[in-house]
Prior knowledge:
This protein is 54% helix and 15% strand. It is built from twelve helices and five strands. Strands 1-2-3-4-5 form a five-stranded mixed beta sheet, with helices on both faces. A hairpin with a 4-residue loop joins strand 2 and strand 3. The model is unreliable at 285-294 (pLDDT under 50).
Amino acid sequence: MMNEIRELLLNARQRVAVEVNTELLSTYWNVGRIIVEHEQESKDRADYGKQTLKQLSKDLTKEFGKGFSVSNLQFMRRFYQSYKIQQTVSVKLSWSHYCELLTISDTNKRSFYEKEAINSGWSIRELKRQISTSLYERLLLSEGKTNKETVLALAEKGIEMATPLDMIKDPYVFEFLGVPENKPMLESDLEKALIAQIEKFLLELGRGFMFVGTQQRITLNNTHYYVDMAFYNKILRAYVLIELKTTKLTPEAVGQLNMYLNYYAAEVNDEYDNPPIGIILCTDKDSIAAKVRK
């Protein structure tokens, strides 16, 4: 009985939160619209707008309380100016998300982060982290040069995951581990650090990842081997095996991973699974790089 009531209350709370967020975004969008329309009626828009927002902030704060500072009203104005069609505003994001996005002047870059925040379900904290670690720039430069078509595609659709190569970022940035730079680290310590921060690790990997486990045993010819980390990607419908190496990539590491992939393909995969994917996280040019095989 308790579980049934709990589920009912949690669902109701979620519906209320969605409705409140939807109304809040609609209201702030319309506040921005009214501000812009009034400014356009003034001959001296700059001075008019500056004085109007100050007085408007005082009046609204006096009657409705917090939330109507001059800076917040400026965000509402920018909100309307950036999303002239209200239907393009996603109710999957909060007002805090949009305030963070509106600080990005490049429209393609902002659109990319908006799409990824929606598709990946980023919290505002995660959105800030991805922006601060330059995810957009890292993805573009991973090809060695900025590609205009890639920029436009990322801005329009976010990261598409149709093939294993779409899934891989190079380099991965694991600054959330707090690992000192230029300091040797054991593979077992790296594994423990990633497990301790598994939620952030999954977000860094990308969409669709589910954690299976660490040190997954494989037995071949009566000899036991262990896969460092195993995941399943529900979008690609494939197991993803990760090997951790705190050295540069070696042929031995590639051969070992291929052995694991062959085992999973023959013994673990279901009939509807695609071939397993292998990633070797290794140090290369003082960063953690990724190599993929399948």
